[in-house]
Specification:
The protein is mainly α and about 90 residues long. The protein has one domain. Helix content is about 70%, strand content about 0%. It is built from three helices and no strands. α1 packs parallel to α3 (about 55-80). The longest helix is centred in the last third of the chain and has 25 residues, at about 55-80. The radius of gyration is 14 Å and the shape is globular. The relative contact order is 0.15. The model is unreliable at about 1-10 (pLDDT under 50).
């Protein structure tokens, strides 16, 4: 799933960023759900890779980018896909 006009060299974290961006740009709810699931799977796999590697500063920056992406995906799920808000009290 590549985005037109994007290349790996333009993305700071291409391992999961393409799938994340596809979810952000999707308007069709059925396709959005697929993109969100694919992005989550890709992010999970990348987190597994990071857990096995050294703890460099770049990995910390990528970890923060992943946290931000997951937060955005949760917002998409809640607001566009009617997922429940588990943080409500």
């Amino acid at each position: 799933m590549t985005q037109q006009g994007s290349s790996s060299s333009n993305l700071p974290y291409p391992a999961c960023q393409r799938e994340y961006e596809a979810a952000l740009l999707e308007l069709d709810p059925k396709k959005l759900l697929e993109h969100v699931h694919t992005a989550e799977e890709t992010i999970f796999n990348r987190l597994q890779e990071l857990a096995q590697s050294s703890d460099s500063q770049d990995h910390k920056a990528e970890g923060q980018a992943i946290e931000d992406a997951l937060a955005s995906l949760r917002i998409l799920q809640r607001e566009k896909l009617s997922f429940p808000d588990w943080k409500k009290e």
